[in-house]
Amino acid sequence: MTAQIIDGKAIAEQVRGEWKKRADALKAQGVLPGLAVIIVGDNPASKVYVRNKVRACHDVGLHSEVHELPADITEAMLLKQIQDLNANPDIHGILVQLPLPDHISDDKVLETIDVEKDVDGFHLYNLGALVAGNTVFPPCTPYGVQCLIEHTNIPIEGQNAVVVGRSNIVGKPMALMLLHKGATVSICTSKTRDLAFYTRLADILVVAVGRPGLITADMVKEGAAVLDVGINRTDEGKLVGDVDFESVKEKAGHITPVPGGVGPMTISMLVANTVLAAERLSGLGSGKLQDT
Ligand SMILES: NC(=O)C1=CN([C@@H]2O[C@H](COP(=O)(O)OP(=O)(O)OC[C@H]3O[C@@H](n4cnc5c(N)ncnc54)[C@H](OP(=O)(O)O)[C@@H]3O)[C@@H](O)[C@H]2O)C=CC1
Ligand SMILES: Nc1nc(=O)c2c([nH]1)NC[C@@H]1CN(c3ccc(C(=O)N[C@@H](CCC(=O)O)C(=O)O)cc3)C=[N+]21
Q1: Which of 231, 240, 258 best tests ligand 2's pocket when mutated (most atoms within 8 Å of CB)?
Q2: Which CATH architecture has domain 27-132?
Q3: Of all protein residues, whose CA lies closest to atom 12 belonging to ligand 2?
Q4: For 140-263, which CATH class?
Q5: Angle between helices 140-151 and 262-282 (to 10 degrees)
């Protein structure tokens, strides 16, 4: 079997177009949705992602601003910057790019962001809402994966889903979203004794680890949907995922490429959450993810 390649870039553009309509409706009523991105230090990969985020906001006609802060900024000064953005009526979404330098507590930073402006969905309140099944701002990457699955008409209910990776930003929320959609979910980690045993059970396999070539064809069930979240740069400067794309595409039913798979969807979901935040804060529009 040769897999259908899921065109994340095209689906991400389509999703962006739908949210542009909602942004335009807000703008017609005098509300310009605004996103503030804070980036601490100069990690080159983070800069690329932030640039992509700003470009996407621009494409949809949103306001965006980037606050570049030095790596040695104190935690107190960073928190003050977030509080100022919390109080700024022109800003509806706040995103602090991770990872942060070691002397700054991720938890403290994420808890300082106003829950109503938490477009990453990383605040404990929003994570709690996700656990309870009434999400306000779904974390962008796993929500992007869910949308790719749904756009491709891959069934979730009753299917075996396996998520490799248990981070708070990808693996854990991904597993919860699939659980809410009725999948039977397993979560694998670096401690899993026989990773291939689990991955071979998967009708839907989501991989978010950060290790190139981790998933090979022998670990994949014939016809499975394989969603590769991993982003790794090889020594030659090439961008690759966690899945051995060339071999796995001969066995899977569907597969996402890297680049051009999950990454562009993450960015579209950030646009979506920013428009959603602007709707909620202004009391205009539906304020709901799905407004149909
Ligand atoms: N496309 C996109 O939009 C995004 C891509 N990414 C990419 O996704 C990848 C994962 O990111 P993130 O979740 O933040 O990473 P983390 O480093 O926070 O988590 C990695 C997870 O992988 C697990 N793991 C490590 N080695 C293995 C192994 N051999 N077998 C099974 N599990 C293993 C770890 O297990 P344990 O907990 O036991 O240590 C951990 O749970 C990265 O490549 C990142 O760049 C991230 C965010 C967005
Ligand atoms: N607070 C926070 N929120 C995040 O959402 C967040 C974060 N921190 N830290 C880092 C990760 C990583 N991440 C990506 C976003 C876009 C691409 C992306 O656009 N990828 C393109 C290619 C990009 C390239 O050329 O390097 C693609 O896969 O096609 C990738 C990765 C968001 N993250």
Answers
A1: 231
A2: 3-Layer(aba) Sandwich (3.40)
A3: 49
A4: alpha beta
A5: 110
